[in-house]
Amino acid sequence: MEVQTTRFGTVEITDDRVITFPKGLLGFGEQTRFCLLQPSDEACFFWLQAVDNPDLAFVITDPSLFVPEYAVPIRNEQMEDLRLSSIDDAQIFVIVNKVGTRLTGNLQGPLVINTQNKIGEQFVLAEKRWTTRHDLVDLKDETSEVEVIQQQKTASA
Fold first, then answer.
1. Residue ranges in the chain whose pLDDT is less than 70
2. CATH of residue 56
C-alpha cells in the first residue's frame, strides 16, 4: 500500500502495518488509520503517520526509555476494546512535542497499541502525577554533549 506524506513523499508499507484507532486520536477523531514510520533501526523517536491524510503525523516515542517508572493501567473493558488477550501484547507510546529546547511527552494521553492485531486507543489517565508536557529530553544539553564529544575527537586527532 502506498501512503502519501508531506514529510517523506510516498512511502510503501504492507497492509499489516496499518494501525487502526477506532476512536481516532484526541482532536482527530475522523482519522482512524495510521502507520508507524521508523527513521532508522536505532531510532527512539518514530512518526505516527495518518494513512488517509498526508499532512497529519505525530512524533511518538516509548516513554519507558525516558521515564522508567511510567506505567499505564489498563482496565478489563479497555483490554476488551483493544482485543488484548495478554498485557504483554500492548505497546505504549506517547506523543512528543518540542517546547523551546525541550522535548516533552504527553504522559497523560498515552497511545496503547495491540501489537498482534494493530488496534490502538489513546487513553486519558486520571492520575495527575503525569502531565501532557512531561520533560523527556533537553536538546540544549544533548547538543552540548555532542559538541564536547566532537571537541574531544578534534583534540585527540
1. 141-157
2. 2.30.290.10
